[in-house]
Amino acid sequence: MMGGACSRKRDQQVNEDSGNRGIYGRYCKSGSSKWLGNSISRLAVDNKQGKTKCPSLMELCIYKIREDIDKYSSFSMLPRDISQQIFNELVYSQCLTEVSLGAFRDCALQDLDLGEYPGLEDSWMDVISSQELSLLSVDLSGSDVTDSGLIHLKNCTNLQAMNFNYSDQISDHGLEHISGLSNLATLSFRRNNQITAQGLSVLSGLVNLLKLDLERCPGIHGGLVHLKGLTKLESLNIKCCNCITDADMKPLSGLHKLSLLNMEGCPITAACLDCLAGLTNLETLNLDSCRIDDEGLVNLTGLQRLRCLELSDTEVGSNGLRHLAGLTSLVSINLSFTVVTDSGLKKLAGLASLTSLNLDARQITDAGLASLTSLTGLMHLDLFGARITDSGTNYLKNFKNLRSLEICGGGLTDAGVKNIKDLSSLTVLNLSQNNNLTDKTLELISGLTQLVSLNVSNSRITTAGLQHLRSLKNLKSLNLDSCKVTAYDIEKLQSTDLPNLVSFRPE
After folding, report:
1. Hey, is 14 helix, strand or coil?
2. Taking the CB of the first residue and of the last residue of the chain, which one, N or C, has fewer CB atoms within 10 A?
3. Cα dist. 310→260, 339, 381 in Å?
4. Taking every pair of C-alpha atoms in the chain, what is the biggest distance, in angstroms?
5. Euclidean distance between the first and the last CA atom of the chain, given in angstroms as a whole number
6. How far is residue 181's CA from residue 48's CA, in Å, rounded to a whole number?
């Protein structure tokens, strides 16, 4: 079943690759985000009152400066915090140009969050670097800055965070220019096709590095050996680096402060997991879509601090789960698209700290759910593709703290929903693909007033059933695709009873 057994996972991957570049480009967001709440263009609107929050005097001034930005040649005489707020407002509103940037020369700005900003190129770097020792973080994600542009950052020796995601014109040569920035704590080069193992040799001098992101860098095979001396490293992301092999993992065995290690999609096997045995500070480990089976999990038994474990789309089965039984700090496990069966779930029954469990796999049935009734602290339960029937929903009564629940295997009728209607903490409920559900289901869940998201697509629900949703005032997302309901029906309900509804299907 490895390699994307479920279309839901494939769709998720496509969206990540294409639709959300801006979001992922700011993975290591610079500290300037702390200023974003001060912008007049982001004033909160009270939907109930229909009024806008009154701006402060400072906000009014910044707004006016933004409108008249062409009249100003320099902000260097202003206090730094005010210059920073003006800069952030111009960036957010996309009013910053190469010309207006010149007014910020020598302003001692600390945070330059320019990720995905249009027009950013090497010619901007002179003003950026003029902040010199004051500059603490810079985000140049998705820009046209080249290796030559990075030369300007040499004197910004107090830099602590740098983000170059999707910066396709930066290569090994560019990394040479940041080799002296020994105060760097966060560095990100997501989706860079130019950086190779040789370029990573520069990282060996960044001894204060805490977070390193090399997601989807296909040329770094053999380069992780240069991380051996980064003994302060706490977070390493090499997700979808399809060049990584078992041999690459060996140098990581000495990084004892690692608390997060993301190897999703790397073609490593169980043979290399012995290098993880000594990483006793690990709290998050992602092995999604790796070539891992039961044998390798024995190396995880000593990771007593492990809280989040991703094993989705691997060959892990019921036998391997015995190695997790002693990891009592675990709060989240993802076993979707594995070969774990009902019998294996009994080995998880003692993990009382679990709050999130993903069992999206067709071989999981009511019997498996029965084995988990001791996990009363569960808040998120994903049974998307599991074969849960009305009978199995009886076991849900043990999970009074559930906030999100997905049961989409097609085995539910209205009778099964009766056991869901009392889960009053639910904010997300997905019952799609259960084509025997009727309007009665909406009546049963009408008391779940905390619901923010509801999906009952591909069912027998009709327009007549929509009346039961009037009590769900917190609902923001509603999916009734492939039901006997039209967009007009939902829009009418939205206008009269569901003021917070912002996303609905059919649309």
Report:
1. helix
2. C
3. 12, 14, 14
4. 72
5. 34
6. 50
Closest by CA position to 258, among listed 228, 288, 287: 228
**What distance in Å separates the CA atoms of residue 234 and residue 208, rounded to the nearest whole number?**
10
Q: Which residues pair with 161 in a beta bridge?
A: 137, 186
**Number of helical H runs and strand E runs in the chain:** 14, 19
C-alpha to C-alpha distance for 178 and 173, rounded to whole angstroms: 10
C-alpha span between 361 and 382 (Å, rounded): 10
Q: Decide: 402 and 378 in contact? Cβ < 8 Å.
A: yes
Which sequence spans correspond to the domains of the chain? Answer: 388-507
In whole angstroms, what is the distance from residue 403 CA to residue 430 CA?
11
- Strand 211-213 vs strand 308-310: parallel, antiparallel, or unpaired? unpaired
Cα radius of gyration rounded to whole Å, the chain: 26
SS3 17: helix
DSSP-derived secondary structure for 274-322:
GGGTT-TT--EEE-TTSB-BGGGGGGGTT-TT--EEE-TTSB-BGGGGG
Per-residue pLDDT of the chain (507 residues; tens, 9 = 90+): 443 333 355 344 434 444 333 333 333 333 333 333 334 444 444 444 455 678 899 999 999 999 999 999 999 999 999 999 999 999 999 999 999 999 999 999 999 999 999 999 999 999 999 999 999 999 999 999 999 999 999 999 999 999 999 998 999 999 999 999 999 999 999 999 999 999 999 999 999 999 999 999 999 999 999 999 999 999 999 999 999 999 999 999 999 999 999 999 999 999 999 999 999 999 999 999 999 999 999 999 999 999 999 999 999 999 999 999 999 999 999 999 999 999 999 999 999 999 999 999 999 999 999 999 999 999 999 999 999 999 999 999 999 999 999 999 999 999 999 999 999 999 999 999 999 999 999 999 999 999 999 999 999 999 999 999 999 999 999 999 999 999 999 999 999 999 999 999 998
251 burial type by CB count under 10 A (0-12 exposed, 13-18 middle, 19+ buried):
middle
User: E-assigned strands of 126-217?
Assistant: 137-139, 161-163, 186-188, 211-213
Given a contact cutoff of 8 angstroms between Cβ atoms, the answer to whether 149 and 121 are in contact is yes
Q: At a CB cut-off of 8 Å and minimum separation 6, what does 3 contact?
A: 289, 313
Q: Which two tokens stand for residue 213?
A: 């992101």
User: Tell me, what amino acid is at 23?
Assistant: I
Full DSSP string of 428-488: EEE-TT-TT--HHHHHHGGG-TT-SEEE--SS--BGGGGGGGTT-TT--EEE-TTSB--HH
51-52/260-262 β-pairing: unpaired
